[in-house]
Amino acid sequence: MSTDLGTLRGLAHLARLEFDATREQQMLGDLNNILDFVAQLEGLDTTGVEPLVHLSQEVNVLRDDEARNTVSHAEGLRNAPRKDSDYFRVPKVLE
Questions:
Q1: Tens digits of pLDDT across the chain (95 residues)
Q2: Does the keyword ATP-binding apply (predicted)?
Q3: What is the reported pTM?
């Protein structure tokens, strides 16, 4: 399968890309190499091959999600540059 310069220019327009003449020829060669590789893959016999859903058979092993306080409220506010009783004071964000 081979792509011509007009098709490359059309794809570049759709992708909002601009190439100079030397880069255009290089991109055309690269695109044709990619399409040739895909054509080789299309020629492979995949009968009897199960579709791949996951790359491995491993299942995520996650710990139970348990709520716990690792830092107390007072410890969290101890190093705050500015605080107001039980809250952090931060610069105003909205007008």
A1: 678 899 999 999 999 999 898 899 999 999 999 999 999 999 999 899 888 877 777 777 788 888 887 888 888 888 888 888 888 888 888 87
A2: yes
A3: 0.50
